[in-house]
């Protein structure tokens, strides 16, 4: 949408950027919602209470999936990806990103982290580049375990670290295909700034000088930029030969083609790989004729996905 037509979306963008943090606060400890629901709403000096649940065994969830109202997540792919991740680490996951209005050029694609368990740091590059690299070169990439905004800025812009952390931003995730938060990133955010991290995040989102032109990409940029400036860059889950986990490994065309294949007694091409790898897709609801058409399309896509999944992994039959 053109920037000059986004003015009435500004508050909606802010609310969208706040939603994951407020959901965490509500689920972790309703008491921590007081700054937003009680008299402390306008008191910026009153720190948000720390959630009482600090141990992993008390966590209300391990992972949070977030996206637009026309984002479809495929849980088999989500679970397959996340089984190797530690939810207690501060992960903000997406592999569908674009250059933000405050992203440094060149160098923006070096401003992202990679998962701790990828020994070679298999970030998104072509198979040709991956094959040409030695293990020593690959191990130079920052891993998710110790990766922060400061780590990335110090590595890529050693002479401009403060400006990189406080004025710039890393790549912006595309909310249409969604993103995934670990419980660890919310815990770390709440503990940041002397336990006032949630308030600091809100103040960043609601900064009085914010304008549509400051955040032309909408709520995705609000969220990622404020997380960046509080020390939490995005983590790219890595390379897959099928395309991105989010939005490419399992695209609309594969689900539209599937019934044709099934009518011939065949599974869709690369069905096992794509149904095991794809995490999400974007419906592009604005291109639908109506909300009803969009809802029916989602119902159709999920039905086709589940049908192929049942053929790939038959569920146990009850006697």
TrEMBL record:
<feature type="compositionally biased region" description="Low complexity">
    <location>
        <begin position="44"/>
        <end position="57"/>
    </location>
</feature>
<keyword id="KW-0472">Membrane</keyword>
<keyword id="KW-0812">Transmembrane</keyword>
<comment type="similarity">
    <text>Belongs to the glycosyltransferase 31 family. Beta3-Gal-T subfamily.</text>
</comment>
<dbReference type="GO" id="GO:0016020">
    <property type="term" value="C:membrane"/>
</dbReference>
<keyword id="KW-0735">Signal-anchor</keyword>
<feature type="region of interest" description="Disordered">
    <location>
        <begin position="35"/>
        <end position="57"/>
    </location>
</feature>
<keyword id="KW-1133">Transmembrane helix</keyword>
<dbReference type="InterPro" id="IPR026050">
    <property type="entry name" value="C1GALT1/C1GALT1_chp1"/>
</dbReference>
<protein>
    <submittedName>
        <fullName>Uncharacterized protein</fullName>
    </submittedName>
</protein>
């Amino acid at each position: 949408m053109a920037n000059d037509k986004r003015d009435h979306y500004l508050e909606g963008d802010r609310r969208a950027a706040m939603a994951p943090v407020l959901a965490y606060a509500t689920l972790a400890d309703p008491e921590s919602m007081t700054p937003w629901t009680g008299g402390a709403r306008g008191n910026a000096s009153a720190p948000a209470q720390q959630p009482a649940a600090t141990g992993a065994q008390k966590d209300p969830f391990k992972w949070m999936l977030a996206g637009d109202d026309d984002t479809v997540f495929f849980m088999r792919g989500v679970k397959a990806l996340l089984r190797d991740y530690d939810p207690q680490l501060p992960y903000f996951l997406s592999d569908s990103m674009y250059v933000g209005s405050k992203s440094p050029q060149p160098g923006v694609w070096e401003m992202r982290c990679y998962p701790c368990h990828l020994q070679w740091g298999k970030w998104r590059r072509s198979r040709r580049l991956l094959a040409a690299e030695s293990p020593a070169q690959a191990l130079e990439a920052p891993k998710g375990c110790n990766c922060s905004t400061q780590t990335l800025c110090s590595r890529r812009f050693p002479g401009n670290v403060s400006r990189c952390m406080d004025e710039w931003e890393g790549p912006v995730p595309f909310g249409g295909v969604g993103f995934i938060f670990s419980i660890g990133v919310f815990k770390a955010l709440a503990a940041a700034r002397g336990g006032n991290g949630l308030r600091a995040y809100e103040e960043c989102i609601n900064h009085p000088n914010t304008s549509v032109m400051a955040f032309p990409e909408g709520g995705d940029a609000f969220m990622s930029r404020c997380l960046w400036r509080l020390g939490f860059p995005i983590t790219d889950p890595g390379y897959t030969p099928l395309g991105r986990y989010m939005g490419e490994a399992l695209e609309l065309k594969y689900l539209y083609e599937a019934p044709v294949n099934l009518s011939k007694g065949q599974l869709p091409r690369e069905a096992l790989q794509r149904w095991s790898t794809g995490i999400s897709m974007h419906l592009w609801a604005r291109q639908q004729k109506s909300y009803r058409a969009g809802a029916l399309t989602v119902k159709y896509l999920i039905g086709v996905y589940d049908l192929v999944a049942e053929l790939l992994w038959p569920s146990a039959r009850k006697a």
